[in-house]
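@channel anyone free to eyeball this complex?
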Amino acid sequence: MDGWSQFVQLLFSGLTVGSIYALVALGFVITYSVTGILNLAQGDFAMLGALLCITFVNSGIPFVIAILLSVVAVMAVGGLFERLAIHPARNSSIATLIIITIGAAFVFRGIAIFIWGTQPYALRPFTGNHSLNVVGAVIQTQNLWAIALSLVSFIALYIFFNKTYIGKAVTACVVNPFAARLMGIEPRKMSLGAVAVSAGLGALAGIVIAPVSGASYDMGVMIGLKAFIAAVIGGLTNAPAAIAGAFIIGILEAFTEGYLSSGYKDAISFGLLLLVLFFMPNGIFAKMSGKRV
Amino acid sequence: MLTLNHLHVYHGHLHVLKGICLQIGKGEIVAIVGANGAGKSTLLGTIAGVYSPKAGEIIFENEPLPYGKVEQIVKKGICLVPERRQIFGDLSVKDNLLLGAYHRYRNDFQQVMRDYEHVLEVFPKLKTMLDRPGGLLSGGEQQMLAIGRGLMAKPKLLMLDEPSLGLAPLIVKEIMKLLRQLRDQFSTTILLVEQNVRAALQIADYACVLDRGEIMMQGKAVELLDDERVKKAYLGMQNKKEYNIAK
Ligand SMILES: Nc1ncnc2c1ncn2[C@@H]1O[C@H](COP(=O)(O)OP(=O)(O)OP(=O)(O)O)[C@@H](O)[C@H]1O
Ligand SMILES: [Mg+2]
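replying in thread with the prediction:
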């Protein structure tokens, strides 16, 4: 494999991982913007989505339906989590709420161990084991699925927030919850929807990456952390910046792994997090655009 | 249409409203004036459901209003245009206006769009800047937007908290004229809190003076305009020394 094809290979693998991080990071951003809560259980929605989908597929449910079903199921889990854990504690301090989400993450992992055990599972690729040859690099179709589905999600979210009435009402709650209430918009209802949608995005991410890197009860930890770093780069409220951050992290990781050693892969993103927190506590892109979600 | 019976409101331990009794009839413009911190905004906020009273009742169209349930109260036809405008800065002028109709857009979007056109006729200036983010408008334009957004809720009772704050006298005049028009066109009942006492009393039918949480005086607006005490305390018809003491 010559240098150029290795480069393309790594780039695609970076884009794939990046799009997974981006989906989960968007979950962070949406939940944080609407509810003001940093949901550290966000990565575990990916784990739940992947494992549920694998179970559905193994029990003979058609692939597409299994995917939809598991996304919807995880959205329901997210909604329940908001109603049972976040909503009753909404007036507590930020620290309390974050600890609640950490607790929820452990509960999700515990339930996953209980149901699926600790061994990894595999999911077959969406469209078989085909691959494309791009200038000598071998690109699996699953990588393309990951990139395409995340792009579709970004566009759908963009349209929702910028073109639909209800999406604008959500934005209004984010921009000025007091005025929104005076108009009859209920920020609390929005909070339920926001957590559910974030959970759905996470589930989708987990399902899409499962054929590439497998699924296990603790897969959400790393995905969640990387996505969190991406979201922090955007100051937690800037969706485009979080997406950009996610792709930067994904690509940096892929190149570090390919050109240096896989041992440095995680060090790179945590180094990035430290840099961002030290020098730009509001996020690299936060200043560039005040636009949220 | 709206009756307040012995309303007591606290902010923490602070007794802000001390037994307010007030009656407002349909289609009236009622002005509330008073010094800073008298409790004017608290009064409007309590009617709108932002604050809950400790005692007393609020009766709207012969039914007691639920306390502290902002979203439900909007549906009943009461809309507050709050202090400092509070528009949605990131959203366009058009979206700001349309979101004003949030509580009723599901039932009849056609009607909402008709009302939207109507509001733009009332504020032709906004028509020229529909796509601009609300935050980039000038103070006066934002005030028009805030009032327009309030109208989009199609309230039976429109409450405005210091709509003239920070505006040039000419624009204040324009806005007061508008409120009069609104009452005449939409037969909206208007409850107006104003620092600009003269402007408020000129368009109001009734007025009351709020002083440290109590209604000190109320009556026909024209009578209050002529009242010696009001003149002294709020219309600046006195020498400087007395004015300072009155404050
Ligand atoms: N949310 C709040 N929490 C605690 N105290 C408050 C709150 N809002 C108002 N207050 C206090 O209640 C009193 C009345 O405030 P309010 O805003 O109703 O006065 P106002 O008549 O509207 O004054 P202004 O003319 O300055 O707007 C003030 O002393 C104020 O400090
Ligand atoms: Mg006030």
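from a first look: Residues 56 and 62 of chain A are 8 Å apart (CA to CA).
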